[in-house]
């Protein structure tokens, strides 16, 4: 095959020779038709191999782009944090501006191209980009836009003595957020069939840009939250670890700078989650490029709290109580009084102990119900489900890391005092809760929804794998039709012919298993929101309790916490999204 033919195969322009059914008119014609069918099968197999090679090449190219962008970005982020002379935050922001402009240009090109080409997107993946996920993206995007506005207003006050790049970057990022939110809202379900190579590279560029924005935001927020212990003879204060003296000679020209700076730092968690949501949706789109999706199987899942009461009520009680203890913790810790700090830490540890204990008991009950559940496990490839499971396990590693480092530090020092005992208990219980919750969520994601018609496949890569089932369905037809090769469309439709006279589906009351699962999911969802809010908005017991810094030394401990904690925060928000999906399918 020539390179032009391989390119055409990758872009979907494969010529499919016709097939001829055998007829009783002539033995010679029947033999000739059979020979042509065998030749067609050989060509079809060859075309499939060409498409596979083309897809692998485009995957490799787009992956190379991602790796290079991310590694270069990591180097710039690391240099801007620990070196304020050679590489600073301005250099990093220039790099991000270039990425954002390129990604925005590609998204605009994609939107215009697909709107003009009728055959660019022939299929939609019903599992990708559900409305609640896109709604969350819009909410986090709005908060990110407000953050950028506050940043611009704040940096205007430093324009006389600082670089204008600090104003340009949030302005460009706000345009990027608007374009990307519109792009993902419209195209998150697309399975692109044309310009696959360009689309895969563009989606990987989008993924890389969002990950770089996430990395930069996490680094900036972690530096802001990191409390550097004072040296001997100095007063207790926290300062930016990038500036050796802790203070800047550039003063703001208006009085609102301090308020604006505090305001936009409180919006950083939403901006961080926005970047991660967009990264996940871009990855699913990348996996769906060139996929063939059966549009005839879409389970209509609606959110309602009918017959569900205990889980939401107990979850709301835990959420309100947790927010109250969090406010007490923040106020008392910021006062700097050691006695009030220890009391606030004790309240915080007790609240977390109660929360993770109840969550662990709930997940054990949920896993037991799954043992009694008769629903089938889902079959077929689903990039959305695979990504959810991968992110769930991968993000939990950050929380596992902090917990195990804390356990070793507390046990190594003898677990002296009530605070250290509570710290040890919270860490151990959190490890148990993470393991149980991962099992519960993964099991729920791999179960078919409670639906009258739950045996139909929804996404498949090669439609010909369904032909065996189709042939069994028509085994009573004449031999002439049995010998004819079925088209993928006929095969798919033949799988969904409902028997005539079948009754319409009726809504019934929830069974006790369904109700129990929904109660558990609602409770776990609200508790995970609580455990996301506390660290996302500034709770740092890892620094307020000095045992970790004393045992591992401050530099190592701050590295462990500032790397593990962002993943732990993302784990809680991703668990909320996954639990909501399990709630709907239950």
From TrEMBL:
Protein origin, superkingdom: Eukaryota
Compartments (UniProt record): Cell membrane
Ranges annotated as spanning the membrane: 59-80, 92-110, 131-147, 167-186, 198-217, 265-286, 307-329, 349-370, 391-415, 421-442, 516-534, 554-571
Keywords of this entry: Cell membrane, Hydrogen ion transport, Ion channel, Ion transport, Membrane, Transmembrane, Transmembrane helix, Transport
Gene Ontology, cellular component aspect: plasma membrane
Membrane topology: Multi-pass membrane protein
Protein name per its UniProtKB record: Otopetrin 2
Protein's organism: Hucho hucho
């Amino acid at each position: 095959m020539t390179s032009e033919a391989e390119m055409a195969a990758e872009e979907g322009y494969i010529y499919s020779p016709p097939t001829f059914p055998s007829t009783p008119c002539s033995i010679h014609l029947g033999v000739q038709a059979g020979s042509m069918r065998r030749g067609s099968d050989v060509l079809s197999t060859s075309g499939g191999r060409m498409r596979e090679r083309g897809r692998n090449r485009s995957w490799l190219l787009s992956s190379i782009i991602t790796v290079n962008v991310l590694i270069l970005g990591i180097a710039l982020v690391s240099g801007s944090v620990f070196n304020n002379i050679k590489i600073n935050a301005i250099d990093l922001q220039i790099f991000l501006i270039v990425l954002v402009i390129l990604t925005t240009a590609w998204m605009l090109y994609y939107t215009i191209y697909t709107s003009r080409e009728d055959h660019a997107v022939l299929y939609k993946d019903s599992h990708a980009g559900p409305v609640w996920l896109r709604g969350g993206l819009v909410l986090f995007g709005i908060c990110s836009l407000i953050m950028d506005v506050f940043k611009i207003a704040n940096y205007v006050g430093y324009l006389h003595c600082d670089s204008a790049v600090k104003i340009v970057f949030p302005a460009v990022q706000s345009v990027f957020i608007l374009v990307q939110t519109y792009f993902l809202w419209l195209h998150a379900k697309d399975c692109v069939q044309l310009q696959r190579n360009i689309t895969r590279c563009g989606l990987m560029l989008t993924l890389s840009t969002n990950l770089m924005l996430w990395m930069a935001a996490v680094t900036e927020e972690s530096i802001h939250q990191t409390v550097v212990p004072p040296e001997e003879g100095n007063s207790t204060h926290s300062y930016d670890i990038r500036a050796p003296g802790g203070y800047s000679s550039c003063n703001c020209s208006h009085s609102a700078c301090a308020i604006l700076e505090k305001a936009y730092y409180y919006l950083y968690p939403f901006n961080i989650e926005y970047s991660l949501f967009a990264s996940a949706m871009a990855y699913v789109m990348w996996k769906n490029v060139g996929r063939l999706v059966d549009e005839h199987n879409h389970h209509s899942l609606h959110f309602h709290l009918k017959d569900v009461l205990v889980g939401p009520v107990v979850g709301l009680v835990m959420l309100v109580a947790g927010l109250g203890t969090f406010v007490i913790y923040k106020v008392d810790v910021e006062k700097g009084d050691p006695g009030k700090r220890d009391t606030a830490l004790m309240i915080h540890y007790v609240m977390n102990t109660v929360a993770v204990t109840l969550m662990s008991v709930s997940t054990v009950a949920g896993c037991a119900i799954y043992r009694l559940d008769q629903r089938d496990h889902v079959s077929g490839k689903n990039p959305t489900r695979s990504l959810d499971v991968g992110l769930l396990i991968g993000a939990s590693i950050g929380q596992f890391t902090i917990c195990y480092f804390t356990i070793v530090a507390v046990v190594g020092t003898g677990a002296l005092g009530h605070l250290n005992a509570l710290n040890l208990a919270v860490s151990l219980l959190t490890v148990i809760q993470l393991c149980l919750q991962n099992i519960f969520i993964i099991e729920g994601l791999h179960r078919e929804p409670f639906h009258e018609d739950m045996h139909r496949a929804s996404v498949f890569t090669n439609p010909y794998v369904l032909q065996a089932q189709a042939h069994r369905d028509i085994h009573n037809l004449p031999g002439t039709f049995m010998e004819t090769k079925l088209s993928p469309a006929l095969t798919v439709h033949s799988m969904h012919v409902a028997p005539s006279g079948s009754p319409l589906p009726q809504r019934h009351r929830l069974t006790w298993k369904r109700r129990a699962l929904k109660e558990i999911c609602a409770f776990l969802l609200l508790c995970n929101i609580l455990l996301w809010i506390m660290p996302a908005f500034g709770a740092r017991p890892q620094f307020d309790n000095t045992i970790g810094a004393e045992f591992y030394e401050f530099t190592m401990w701050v590295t462990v916490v500032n790397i593990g904690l962002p993943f732990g925060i993302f784990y809680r928000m991703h668990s909320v999204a996954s639990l909501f999906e399990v709630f709907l399918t239950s």
